[in-house]
Each structure stands twice: as structure tokens, then as C-alpha cells.
Automatic annotation (TrEMBL):
Name of the gene encoding the protein in the UniProt record: FBXO24
PROSITE patterns listed in its UniProt record: FBOX (PS50181)
Family annotation (Gene3D superfamilies): 1.20.1280.50
A Pfam family the protein falls into: F-box-like
F-box domain ranges (all copies): 36-82
Organism from which the protein derives: Cebus imitator (Panamanian white-faced capuchin)
Name the UniProt record assigns to this protein: F-box protein 24
Superkingdom of origin organism: Eukaryota
Length: 319
């Protein structure tokens, strides 16, 4: 018996190129075919819909191939489609809600309130005397308003958070009077980023951090202070009473700056200069990096990396 000849199979090398960059430069196009179509020419909604059918492991691997797919695979819409596909039962149900529970009085029942449909999650809540403020994860601050409504018996009653408006965008953090009694929370201090015009005669603009003060009763802005573009903050807390309100601002580098304002003069239409001072958390450890902070009326708690805590007792200007 003779041996059967088996033809040799040769591997063909296929040149791959980044989908966002198009075909590789210098390559010869085959006759009879047009120019290759780049994925970047597809609408973003179509690309997100196509890759949403991939398994999660393959989607993560695809996002590591190039910058274009990294941005597409990291989009919020893609992961929303994946979650709906993995959990079909949640498609027709609400995935987030907002409820209030009264801890005082005879009736301690839950009451449902309006949920901002445009909110990207709930990052922070702050109830005041009349309303509720919510900050989401993209920097949008929502103002949930209460209103007097008529009941079935014809009587007027308060309805908690029955409607909402967008107070501001680009917010990083916000704070109010640190006391537990909501009657003291007259003003809302919002740490935000705003585009400021450059020098006179130029069209360029730069992002600067600022503190905007709003009335909690109406949501009207009554005061604004803007900082130099070289200073970037990530958190704000309040200490002290109305006449000597201290604002503590935490930078990205872990440093704390403070300034003092008089809340009784904020509603007066005038401008004045405040002094921004760098404060020391510890005299023994001057280079201590602060990760976050919290406060009450007379003291502040600094939390450093990773677990070291330092109390600053009253008076707050002390070391």
C-alpha cells in the first residue's frame, strides 16, 4: 500500500488594524473590492447595541484593544443594555425609588416621593426644613420640592417631594448647617466647577472651582465666590454659627483651606472680599494628607490615609 500524499496547509498572515484608525497604511487593496469600512463610521447607538450581546468577559477584552473600543465598552448605555439582558425581569420594574419615613408622631409609615428620572444614581441626600436636595454621580444637584395638596377629605396637607427641578450642574459637593435640626439649614453651599472667561481680549475660557450659596426655601442663588483656576477642591463642610460660618474646603492633594462668611449678610446685594487661608491639621505631622472630613457645629473630624483620625475640638480655629 502506498502512502497517501497530504497537501501542506500554509497559514496566511492577516494584518489587523485598529477599527478606529481604519485600514493599515501602505497596504495594497485587492481588486474588485472597495475601501474597508471603519467601525467608527457606524452610529454610536448601533455599535453599543451590537457589542451589548457579547459576554461580559469578551466585552472587557474588547475594551482593551484600542482607545476607541475602550470608550465604547465603558459607556453607560452599553452596561445598561447588558444588565437588562441578564435580568429581563427588571425590564418592566423600577430599579430605583425614593421613600420617606416619619420617625415622630403616631404614624410611622413610608411615603413614596417623586424620583428624578434624569438622576444617575443617588450620591448624597440632604433634607432641609421644607425640601430635599439630591446629588447624583455626574454632578447634577436636584431640588425636590414639597407642596400643599388637597386630600380626599378636602383638607390641605403637606406632600413630601412631589415635584423636582434641577438646581445646578457641575456640582462636586454641597453642605448646609451641620446641626441636626433642619430649621437651621437656611442656606445651601454648593461646591461646583464653572467655565470662566480668560483675560480681556481673548476668547479662551478655563474651568474654575466656585462656591455658590442658595436659599433652601426657594432655590434662589444669593451669593457666589470663585477661586483661582490653580486650586481644585473636592469636598466642603461647614463649622460654626451663622455670624461666623467657617467653610472648610478639601483639595485633591489632601490640603484644607478655610474662610469665614457672615450668613446674615448674604441676602444683601453687595460684594465683599473673603480671605482664604491654609490650615494645619496637625502641628506634629504637618505633611498629613487628608482623605475626607466631617463636622458638627463646633468640631471637625479629619480622616487621613488610611485610617488615622484627628479630632479638632472647639474653638475651631485652635490647633
Amino acid at each position: 500500500m502506498g502512502e497517501k500524499a497530504v497537501p501542506l496547509l500554509r497559514r496566511r498572515r492577516v494584518k489587523r488594524s485598529c477599527p478606529s484608525c481604519g485600514p493599515e497604511l501602505g497596504g495594497e487593496e485587492k481588486k474588485g473590492r472597495g475601501n474597508p469600512i471603519s467601525v467608527q463610521l457606524f452610529p454610536p447607538e448601533l455599535v453599543e447595541h451590537i457589542i451589548s450581546f457579547l459576554p461580559v468577559r469578551d466585552l472587557v477584552a474588547l475594551g482593551q484593544t484600542c482607545r476607541y473600543f475602550h470608550e465604547v465598552c465603558d459607556a453607560e448605555g452599553v452596561w445598561r443594555l447588558i444588565c437588562r439582558r441578564l435580568s429581563p425581569r427588571l425590564r418592566d420594574q423600577d430599579t430605583k425609588g425614593l421613600y420617606f419615613q416619619a420617625f415622630g408622631g403616631r404614624r410611622r409609615c413610608l411615603s413614596k416621593s417623586v424620583a428624578p428620572l434624569l438622576a444617575h444614581g443617588y450620591r448624597r441626600f440632604l433634607p432641609t426644613k421644607d425640601h430635599v436636595f439630591i446629588l447624583d454621580y455626574v454632578g447634577t444637584l436636584f431640588f425636590l420640592k414639597n407642596a400643599l395638596v388637597s386630600s380626599t377629605l378636602g383638607q390641605m396637607q403637606w406632600k413630601r417631594a412631589c415635584r423636582y427641578v434641577v438646581l445646578c450642574r457641575g456640582a462636586k459637593d454641597f453642605a448646609s448647617d451641620p446641626r441636626c435640626d433642619t430649621a437651621y439649614r437656611k442656606y445651601l453651599y454648593v461646591l461646583a466647577t464653572r467655565e470662566q472667561q480668560g483675560m480681556v481680549g481673548t476668547t479662551s475660557s478655563r474651568a474654575c472651582d466656585c462656591v455658590e450659596v442658595y436659599l433652601q426655601s426657594s432655590g434662589q442663588r444669593v451669593f457666589k465666590m470663585t477661586f483661582h483656576h490653580s486650586m481644585s477642591f473636592k469636598q466642603i463642610v461647614l463649622v460654626g454659627q451663622e455670624t461666623q460660618r467657617a467653610l472648610l474646603l478639601l483639595t485633591e492633594e489632601g490640603k484644607i483651606y478655610s474662610l469665614v462668611v457672615n450668613e446674615t449678610q448674604l441676602d444683601q446685594p453687595r460684594s465683599y472680599t473673603v480671605q482664604l487661608a491654609l490650615r494645619k491639621v496637625s502641628h506634629c505631622l504637618p505633611h498629613l494628607r487628608v482623605a475626607c472630613m466631617t463636622s458638627n457645629q463646633s468640631s471637625t473630624l479629619y480622616i487621613t490615609d488610611p485610617v488615622l483620625c484627628s479630632w479638632l475640638q472647639s474653638p475651631w480655629l485652635g490647633g
